[in-house]
Amino acid sequence: MNKDCIFCRIISGEIQSDIIYQDEEVIAIRDINPQAPTHLLVLPRAHIPSLADVGADQEQLLGHLVHVANELAKSEGIAEKGYRLVINCGLEAGQEVPHLHLHLLGGRPLGKLG
C-alpha cells in the first residue's frame, strides 16, 4: 500500500467509495466524476503505478482486470450495446492517479477515438 495513493486508501477502507465488486486481487468502484452513464474503475489491490510498470509476473492480473470489467459490463446492462475499456498510462495520456486502473465506460454512444 502507498499511503499517498488515493486508490490505495480506498482499497484499505480509509476512504469511503461506492464499491461494486471486490475479490482478493481486484476492487471495482464507481467513478466520482463519470464521463458516461456507466463509468466504473477496476483497480488491482496491489499498488502498481501505471501500465508501464506491469511486469511479466503480473500478466494474469491484467487478464483478471479485463475479465472483471467484462462481467461488470454484463451486470450493469451495457454488454449487449457495447462499452469501452480504457487504461491511461502517464500524465500525457490523462492518467490522474498513479495507480493502475481500468475505466469501464458505457450506457450511451461513445463516438470514435482519434
Descriptive notes:
It is a single chain. By secondary structure, this protein is of the alpha+beta class. It has one domain: HIT-like (HIT family, subunit A). It is built from 2 helices and 5 strands; from the N terminus they run αβββαββ. The protein has a 5-stranded antiparallel beta sheet with strand order 1-2-3-5-4, covered by helices on one side. β2 and β3 form a beta hairpin. The mean pLDDT is 95.
Provide a concise account of the structure shown:
By secondary structure, this protein is of the alpha+beta class.
Write the layout of secondary structure elements.
Elements: H1 6-11, E1 19-22, E2 26-30, E3 38-44, H2 59-75, E4 83-86, E5 102-106
Antiparallel strand pairs: 1-2, 2-3, 3-5, 4-5
CATH class: Alpha Beta
Rg, Å, rounded: 14 Å
Q: Based on CA inertia axes, which overall geometry fits?
A: globular
Question: How many domains is the backbone divided into?
Answer: 1
Main β-sheet, in a few words?
A: 5 strands, antiparallel
User: Which fold does the CATH topology refer to?
Assistant: HIT family, subunit A
Quickly count the helices: 2
The run of helices and strands is HEEEHEE
- Segments where pLDDT lies below 50 for 5+ residues? none
What distance lies between the first and last C-alpha atoms, to the nearest angstrom?
A: 36 Å
Strand order of the largest sheet: 1-2-3-5-4
Mean pLDDT: 95
The helicity comes to 10-25%
Strand content: 15-25%
